[in-house]
Request: fold
Amino acid sequence: MRNGEAMGKGSGIRRLRRRIRHLPTWSKAAALALVGVVAFFGVAIGMGAAAERPEEPVASLDVADAAPDLPVAVADEAAQPPDTASASAPAAGAVAPAVLDGASGTADVNLFDASGAQRAVDPSEVPAVAAALEAFRSAGCNAGFVVYDFASQRGLGCNADAAFSSASTIKAPFVTYVAQALVDEGGAALDDEVFEDTVTEGTGIMASDGQSTYDLATVLTDTIVYSDNTGYALLRNRYSEGFEAWAAAAGVDAAAWGGEWYPSYTPRELAKLWLGVGGYLRSGGGQASFCEGLLAQTGTSFIREVLGSDHQVLSKAGYEIDTPLYDMGALNDAGIVRSAAGDYLVAVMSDADYDDAYFTDNEPLILNLIAALDEAHDRLLAA
Reply:
């Protein structure tokens, strides 16, 4: 556990008890036995061991100190991004997943394009991005991202191969898969009755709304708009069989997750999953407009919070807190930003703590990074 130590004892125990409700029945008794111990000792031990972390990210940072491990670009290369393969603007579905393999898999920020060209980006070219990444590091956290502009066919990447908890970001590709591969193909219908045979607490409204049956359209809607954990569980229990094939078509090996509903994956994999989502939305077929409407009104979207006043944002965030039992902090968001300059994809992942009910002081970390990436997109990527 990282930032939780700075909270009051009462909220820490409430979070622990809430997490225990997610545990299998066989482990609840043992876990609950720990609550009294944690209540008495946890805060004192945590406060003594925790490193101090700023509530706000660094507002400005000397470029030389921002990311000293980033390679310095050659002067004549730094002035221009690499040439693009084509001046045309392909739809999201027309982008081969392998294009995103050019994104930097390390802490070095890089610029890449659809032709395979790539180069390191000096912090002086993206000072706000460097400062936002340094703020994560100063808070004891790691972050990574992939940004890709569909019109210019250029992208930015950093730590694209670092594994993070998916949290609820997985719900967007899974709901898209259900709509595209099942509803559109006749394997399911939006008016199918779904019995609530599983209840999962946490985010969402279905666990406490008193209903026992829903139509499939409502389950899909609640899973995205309210990030409903019960809705997602109902979908996974019924429709998981073909998801690995859908993900494989997007260039992601979901079989490697071993059946995990909330796997760990990388910003590159999340971005590729969103190529699959975006391709379906751009197709306009079947239930594409229905899915687009859901992704346009997600209850929590860090991307929309930063960019929604100027752009349409289709996104699905995912976040989690650390607990004494599990190291599972996550502060993520991914989606497609529709700007006047053209659409672009952004996937940001981190291991920072976040909980909308109890713990929000890490939110500026991701908000500042998203804002910095938008500025870098307009300057370096936009056609």
